[in-house]
Amino acid sequence: MAVAVLVRWTVLGDVEAALRLVIRAAADAGFSPEDGGVAEVCVRVPRSLFWRRRAARLTGSASASARGTEISWTADDQGTGHLEHLLGIEEKLPEGVVYYHGLLSAAARAGLVLGEVKERRNVVGVLGRNESVRAVGHGQLGDHRGYVVLTGTRFLVFGDGDASAGLVLDVPHGSIQGISLGKKTAGETLRLVLPAGEREISGLGHGEGHGIIKSYRQAVAESERYTARPPG
Fold first, then answer.
1. 191 with 77, same domain?
2. Hey, is 170 helix, strand or coil?
3. pLDDT of residue 2
4. What's 138's domain CATH number?
5. What is the pLDDT of residues 111-123, one digit of tens each?
6. 136 and 46 belong to one structural domain
7. How large is the greatest C-alpha to C-alpha distance in the chain, in angstroms?
8. Residue 98 lies in a domain
9. Is residue 22 part of a domain?
10. Which residue in 6, 123, 127, 192 has a CA-CA distance of 20 to 30 Å to 157?
11. φ, ψ for residue 169, nearest 5 deg
12. How many of the other CB atoms lie within 10 Å of CB of 52?
């Protein structure tokens, strides 16, 4: 039976350099990293009564990718807490060495800062390998307040908080029948017309909704040009 991959990281740099960074980060997180051989690192998480943590062993398998090094993490058992351990390691990596699919630069253009690794991982954890973020906002969808993320192919809304808040809206561009922007002194509002009805995202910061609509229209235009391109 294949071992399920818990999470995949993309670390900038070659395999050897990436594994050195991970080993150092795991040690800084209080764990016991071991060289697992060629293109692999093993991390032993010691049992802790104080932290109510059971012992665990995590394995990161590295391979070269177009953007650097992809590290696929697995665990020796199906216990809980493994993702928290990996977040602890990721938080110790130097800023700027993990590829977050353009999320941080898109957020910066909107004046937003995703400072916590958990926030970043909640978003990029649902993105495809080649999916990139075009625009970001922060608003209210129904009972959920959280990040609005536009990629080259999807419109996503995430609830604030830990991973349990999760993805609350996932709409392919092709399912959006209409999109409009409303502006008030309290902020901007996006209205989406979908096959299941209209959805409204309110409380966006000034310029955030405009940036999302502009990026959406650019992405759709690019897709239409690509589709219309003659074969050969």
1. no
2. strand
3. 53
4. 2.30.29.30
5. 999 989 999 999 9
6. no
7. 64
8. no
9. yes
10. 6
11. -150, 130
12. 8
Question: Mean pLDDT over residues 198-207, rounded?
Answer: 96
Range of the domain at 141: 103-228
- Produce one character per residue of 122-160: b if its CB has 16 or more CB atoms within 10 Å, e if not: bbbebbeeeebbbbbbbbbbeebbbbbbbbbbbbbbbbe
205/117 same-domain check: yes
State the pLDDT confidence band at 48, using cuts at 50, 70 and 90: confident
Q: Which 8-state DSSP code applies to residue 99?
A: -
Residue in 164, 154, 204 with CA at minimum distance from that of residue 184: 204
CB 210 within 8 A of CB 167: no
Which one of 92, 117, 136 terminates a domain? 92
Closest residue by Cα to residue 25 from 37, 11, 38 = 11
Kindly report the pTM of this predicted structure.
0.90
How would you classify the pairing of strands 56-65 and 197-204? unpaired
Q: What is the pLDDT of residues 108-151, one digit of tens each?
A: 999 999 989 999 999 999 999 999 999 999 999 999 999 999 99
Decide if 220 contacts 228 (C-beta within 8 A): no
Whether the Cβ atoms of residue 144 and residue 126 lie closer than 8 Å to each other: no
Total domains in the chain come to 2
Q: Looking at the domain assignment, is residue 123 inside a domain?
A: yes
Residue 162: half-sphere exposure toward Cβ, Cα within 13 Å: 4
Give the whole-angstrom CA distance, residue 209 versus residue 202. Answer: 9
The last residue of one of the domains, among 40, 59, 92, is: 92
Is residue 97 one of the residues assigned to a domain?
A: no
Can you tell me whether residue 10 is helix, strand or coil?
A: strand
Q: Say if residue 208's pLDDT is above 90.
A: yes
Instruction: Answer yes or no: is pLDDT of 171 > 70.
Output: yes
